[in-house]
């Protein structure tokens, strides 16, 4: 499945006139297969052995191109490092306050919020974003284990 998604993303870039360089292909493939909402630095570190001449700036520039093409969302969450999410479908995020882990979830009922907001305010709504914060199971377990010891 990720091969099909990757090919569709590459086709989208080509259609918008973006040249597909080996670095662009690798960054996009990393985003498609990654479930971790990586930072630009994490993408750079994951690909630096394969592309020793690639810089962090190259990663940022390509992420900007992907964002402008509608393939990637930038998630500017609290830790001052933006994380990047390959756009597969409309979804929300739950974020661990301790380790920063981000997990996707979908709840169709929240789509009605846009309609309601538009109806009440008269705004033409483009999009909405929601984050839920808490403690992931790993951090909750580690806290429990450290209290017991």
From TrEMBL:
Sites where the protein binds Zn(2+): 96, 99, 136, 139
GO cellular component terms listed in the entry, alphabetical order: cytoplasm
Record carries keyword Ribosomal protein: no
Coiled coil regions in record: none
A Pfam family the protein falls into: FUR
Gene Ontology MF terms: DNA-binding transcription factor activity; transcription cis-regulatory region binding; zinc ion binding
Main location: cytoplasm
CDD domains (UniProt xref): Fur_like (cd07153)
CC cofactor note: Binds 1 zinc ion per subunit.
Entry binding sites for Fe cation: 90, 128
Alphabetical UniProt keywords: Cytoplasm, DNA-binding, Iron, Manganese, Metal-binding, Repressor, Transcription, Transcription regulation, Zinc
Gene3D superfamilies: 3.30.1490.190, Winged helix-like DNA-binding domain superfamily/Winged helix DNA-binding domain
Intracellular or extracellular location(s): Cytoplasm
One biological process term in Gene Ontology: regulation of secondary metabolite biosynthetic process
CC cofactor: Zn(2+); Mn(2+); Fe(2+)
Similarity comment: Belongs to the Fur family.
PANTHER family attached to this UniProt entry: PEROXIDE-RESPONSIVE REPRESSOR PERR, ZINC UPTAKE REGULATION PROTEIN
Protein name per UniProt: Peroxide operon regulator
Taxonomic source organism: Bhargavaea cecembensis DSE10
Gene: perR
């Amino acid at each position: 499945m990720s091969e099909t998604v990757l090919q569709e993303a590459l086709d989208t870039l080509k259609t918008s006139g973006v040249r597909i360089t080996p670095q662009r292909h690798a960054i996009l493939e990393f985003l498609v297969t990654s479930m971790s909402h990586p930072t630009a630095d994490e993408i750079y570190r994951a690909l630096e052995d394969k592309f020793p001449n690639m810089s962090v700036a190259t990663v940022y520039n390509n992420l900007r191109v992907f964002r402008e093409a509608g393939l990637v969302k930038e998630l500017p969450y609290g830790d001052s490092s933006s994380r990047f999410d390959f756009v597969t479908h409309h979804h929300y995020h739950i974020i661990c306050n301790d380790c920063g882990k981000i997990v996707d979830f979908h709840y169709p009922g929240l789509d009605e919020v846009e309609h309601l907001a538009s109806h009440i305010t008269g705004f033409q709504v483009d999009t909405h974003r929601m984050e839920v914060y808490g403690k992931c199971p790993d951090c909750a377990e580690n806290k429990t284990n450290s209290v017991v010891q």
